[in-house]
Design a protein that fits this description.
This is Hydrolase. The structure is a single chain. The protein is α/β, with parallel strands linked by helices and about 290 residues long. The radius of gyration is 19 Å and the shape is globular. The chain has ten helices and 14 strands. The chain has helices spanning about 20-25, 35-45, 60-65, 100-110, 145-150, 170-185, 205-215, 235-240, 250-255, 270-285, and strands at about 1-5, 15-20, 50, 70-75, 80-85, 90-95, 115-120, 125, 160-165, 190, 195-200, 225-230, 245, 260.
C-alpha cells in the first residue's frame, strides 16, 4: 500500500472522486479552507472533481459551493446523479424496484427480527414508527415499510433510491453480513454508519458503477481516476479506480480495497494528496 506522498503520474489523472462524510468533510461536517483551496486548484489544473456520497441530493448544501465545472455529484450510493448547479436536480436515477424492496423487507424481518426500515425516495425520506427519526427531514411521513413501498400499479410511484434497514442490537458488520447472505442476490447491500444501519440499492448499483458510467461518458478510464473513501460503501469505488486512498480513519474493508492510505479526514487527508498531484502536474507542465 502506498502513502499519501506516493502520487500517481500527474499527467495521467483526469478525475478525482471523493466521498464526503469521514473523508472530505471534517467531523463537524465542514470543508476546511485547505480542502476548498485544493479542490479549486485541481479544477484549475484541468482535473474534474466528483463528489460521490451516500447522502441524498438534498443534503449536499455543505459542498454545493465547491462544485466547479460540470456541477454534478453522485448521490445515494450511486442511485442518483444530481446537478448541484441546478439546486440538486436529479439528472440520472438508478432506482430500486419496489417489489424487490418489499421482498428484501420480508427477508430481513424474518432473518433479523426487530429490523426497522426507512424508504429514501427521489422526493425525500419516509420511515417506520420505530426507526431512528431523521431530524433533518421534518416532513417525512411515518408508516410501515409495506405501506411506504405500496403503489397502485407497477411503475406509478416516485422512484425508490434506497431502502434503509436499522437494527438496535446487531453489530454493524454482522448485520451487513447477515443481510448479504439472506438477500444479497436481489439487491446491493452496504453501510456507512457507525451503527447497524444498512443501505440497500438496486442490483449492481454502487458508487463505483455509477462513477464508471459518468467516466465513460467523458472518455475517462479507471487508470485516470483517483478515489478517496473511508467506509464499506466506498469499497467498490476504491477497488475500481486506478489509484485510491483510504483515509487514516477508514474501516478495515476500505483500507484493504485502496491502493494507498492518506491522513485522516480531520487532518485534511484528501487535500494532502490533491496538493501533491497538482504540484507535480504544474511542475511537469513547466518542464515541457
Amino acid at each position: 500500500m502506498t502513502s499519501a506522498t506516493d502520487s500517481p503520474s500527474p499527467a495521467a489523472i483526469r478525475l478525482i472522486a471523493t466521498d464526503l462524510d469521514g473523508t472530505l468533510l471534517r467531523d463537524d461536517k465542514t470543508v476546511s479552507d485547505r480542502t476548498v483551496a485544493a479542490l479549486a486548484a485541481a479544477e484549475k489544473a484541468g482535473i474534474e472533481v466528483f463528489f460521490v456520497t451516500g447522502r441524498p441530493a438534498r443534503w449536499m448544501d455543505v459542498v454545493s459551493d465547491h462544485v466547479h465545472g460540470h456541477g454534478l455529484a453522485i448521490c445515494a450510493n450511486g442511485a442518483a446523479v444530481a446537478d448541484l448547479h441546478a439546486g440538486g436536480e436529479l439528472v440520472k436515477v438508478r432506482p430500486l424496484e419496489r417489489l424487490i424492496a418489499l421482498d428484501v423487507v420480508q427477508s430481513l424481518r424474518a432473518a433479523a427480527p426487530g429490523t426497522t426500515f426507512a424508504v429514501e425516495l427521489a422526493t425525500g425520506i419516509h420511515y417506520e414508527p420505530d426507526y431512528p427519526p431523521f431530524h433533518l427531514d421534518p416532513c417525512a411521513s411515518i408508516a410501515v415499510a409495506e405501506k411506504l413501498l405500496h403503489e397502485e400499479a407497477p411503475g406509478t410511484g416516485v422512484p425508490v433510491l434506497k431502502l434503509l434497514a436499522h437494527h438496535a442490537e446487531l453489530t454493524p458488520d454482522d448485520f451487513l453480513a447477515l443481510a448479504r447472505t439472506t438477500a444479497g442476490a436481489r439487491a446491493s447491500f452496504t453501510r456507512s454508519s457507525p451503527t447497524a444501519l444498512l443501505e440497500i440499492s438496486g442490483p449492481g448499483v454502487s458508487k463505483a458503477s455509477t462513477l464508471e458510467l459518468c467516466c465513460a461518458e467523458r472518455g475517462i478510464s479507471p487508470a485516470e481516476v483517483v478515489a478517496f473513501g473511508d467506509m464499506p460503501n466506498d469499497v467498490e469505488m476504491l477497488s475500481w479506480a486506478g489509484t485510491s486512498y483510504a483515509m487514516g480513519n477508514a474501516h478495515p474493508a476500505a483500507l484493504a480495497a485502496a491502493t494507498g492510505r492518506t491522513a485522516t479526514n480531520g487532518e485534511d487527508g484528501v487535500a494532502v494528496v490533491i496538493e501533491r498531484i497538482v504540484a507535480e502536474r504544474l511542475a511537469a507542465d513547466a518542464g515541457r
